[in-house]
Amino acid sequence: MTINFGIDLGTTNSAIAKFEKGEVIVFRNPIGQKQTLPSIVSLRKERLLVGEKAREYLLKAPQDVAASFKRKMGTTETYHLGEKIYTPTELSALVLKELKNFIHTGEIPQSTIVTIPASFDTIQSNATKEAGKLAGFEEVVLLQEPIAASLAYANQGNQGEYEEGKWLVYDLGGGTFDVALIQIQDGEMKVLDNQGDNFLGGHDFDREIVEKIVIPYLESQGTFASLPEEMRAATGKYNQLYHSLLIKAEQAKIELSASESAEIEFDTVDDQGEQVEGFLTVTREQLEALLEPHLVHTLELVGTILDRNKLKPEALKFVLLVGGSTYIPYIRTQIAERLGIPVNTDVDPTTAVTVGAAYYAGTKSLRQAPPPSEAVDTSSQAALQVRTAFQKATKEDKEYFAARFEGNIEGLTYRITRQDGGYDSGAKVLTHKISEYLPLVPNSYNEFTLKVYDTYNNPLSLSIPPIGITQGKYAVVGQPLPQDICLEIDDVENQTTALEVIFEKNDVLPLKRTLVKQMSRTISKGSADRLTLTIIEGPGTALPAASQQIGFISVSGKDLNRDLVKGSDVEITLQMSESRDLSISAYLLMTDQEFSDVFQPEARRVNILRLTDELVALAEKVREEAQEAEIQDNYEGAQQLVDLEFEILGLADRTRKMSLEDSTDEKFQLEDRKRKLAQRVDELTRDKYIIRVKNDYFEAKRDIEYVLENFDPTEEDKVALEQLMDQEKSVLATNSSLKIQEFTDQLRRLNFRIRWRSSSYIREFFMALVYGRFGDFIRPNEAQQLIAKGYEALENKNDQQLRVIINQLIELLPPSQRGNINFGGTGIA
């Protein structure tokens, strides 16, 4: 059995569809017969309203209405409706519940596909799944919106010349923007790359009409002390007017798609109690001027994908337009002109994602098939367990089918038939593994039945799900990971932390990886010290602070059954499901203990005052980096950093002017922008760190070349060095300071291993310790006794004893001189 139901949970509108026998049905609202439901919730006289009725109250009583809450998914923001407080997740669940009323067939789906923007982070994705669970769905599988749109396009039946090749999906909806690079090759559709902005869409255009056109007009007509702040604050004097103006701005924007001008009419009372009657005309030219910087931003994201994949625009077939905001003529014409490739409007921008979600649902098996309705035979043969495998959508004229049977199969036969009578495998002897190539009717849904018979040719009552294969339709080859998933580890040399990439951006979900790390410090049993495994989402080349923490496991000394010694191994396993559920386990080899958890990422919390401080601190860091670049005659880099500093200070200025009661999502937009600017700073300053670690590497390489010539390496040492040198070019090409540093450390460990076997080296090492080149010992008397034993070992040429004494003397050095880590890092390196 397959899931079959697909839902587009949109910022502005939502919809639900079902895959049935190769086709998709988009359900209509029984009230009004529209295919979409406004994603709006309101409370009227203790009644919760969802959809069109709720939307009506945006003009009448906006304080009792919640809208655009998708943009706040995964945050700590809440909405007050009457006496009750709702989270964005709870409001989304109410929309999903209402969509169930669209299903006229009487079915109550237990599982569904729910779409999300491709650029949604793990926290937002988890919040969306939680909304599905609150709505009563036992199983919720997430699907990225550009993939859904591509499935809707590719499966509409008139692909023709576009069946092979690459295209872009440009998805500009009410609240989010995504661009994805799609490829169809050899009958398979694959997502190659994606980029996006979770705070860009039609709602931003409405807001700018209000804030940049209507508010200045209103201030010229009456007396207002702080109109923008009073409008945006949840308890502001003009908050209701603000929400009603947003509705009127949206209506004007839609009207401007067909007309050169639109009128906005309203009335209010100013601070002096004077009546102000507003009537202004908004022109298409004004709207296009507001759209221009946003359009440029979307094209920059398109350019990022093209550059990353080394593609020219002419290598693409077209740009597929999805999302209500792509109805705007300026968006359509400018994309075509500036990219120089045609735009494709073959799918309905408002329902394409829903249709694609349903196609995807038709290929996803239910997590647990329902029990058969007929009575079950309790004989030993009826206890057979059956597992089947086949592609649920294909472009081939035959599809490979396989099944595995577990249990007593003696004397049994099987038969596979197609529902239309066009295929019959005939009776065949049942084996534990069977396979068939099933012929398919073109451009149709093909349903087959597999039955098992006993020696008397009586059918056994087995729970075998129907075999349904849609011919002529595409399925997608996995969903790509939108961002790197990294582990924060200690950077011992620089006394800070860095990121190690576990799963790379565009890796196909689901994913699993096990790696072994070493303890960077000792954690004593019973102590308050901690080993912290922090998972970060964002570019693996950036600093941890420039990316987003999505979860962690913390192991205290109080959790240990013995000391966890520096250098001991920690085996870490991370798994991420197709819907971005992340689980982690850590096995401590020294203590034989395992700690595991399924991450429930904490909601994002943005404090405006703290955000301002963070922006100011970031600006100061950028200023220092710019000065350093200028000293090194890197004038181009210095200028880029200065430009970034001004942009960061501009954001800080915006946060200072924001009310602490601001009810918009601007603070989340600014926080998101801050992280991206911090990542940009990392990109511009990374070279100096790369140069430093590369110089360190080449020094280590020269050193080991000297060791090979002047000491006695074994054949094993030579092979180990040869294997390392085979990796040299690829490691240096990564331009990752962490990877190059790890590679350098491997060289140094090999270097030391060779030296440590040398009698002359350990004697020189001992004498260096004796003459205090590494500082004074913390317990002098104990050190003197060891030194005396060391001299005896020298006289007796007992190298093994001398090595033991050297290690004991090192432990008596001050912590700062024996490389002990006390900077409070994660505990792993």
Summarize the structure.
The protein has 829 residues and is an alpha+beta fold. The chain contains 18 helices and 36 strands. About 2% of the residues have low confidence.
What labels describe this entry?
829 residues; alpha+beta; 5-stranded mixed sheet; 18 helices
Structural write-up:
This protein has 829 residues and is of the alpha+beta class. Helix content is 37%, strand content 25%. It is built from 18 helices and 36 strands. The strands form 10 sheets. Strands 1, 2, 3, 4, 10 and 11 form a 6-stranded mixed sheet that branches. A 5-stranded mixed sheet has the order 14-13-12-17-18, sandwiched between helices. A hairpin with a 2-residue loop joins β2 and β3. The radius of gyration is 32 Å and the shape is globular. About 2% of the residues have low confidence.
Give the tally of β-strands.
36
Broad structural category = alpha+beta
Query: What's the shape?
Result: globular
Instruction: Tell me the radius of gyration.
Output: 32 Å
Instruction: Estimate percent helicity.
Output: 25-40%
**Number of helical segments with 4 or more residues:** 18
Low-pLDDT segments, ≥5 res: 369-381, 820-824
Give the termini distance in whole angstroms.
46 Å
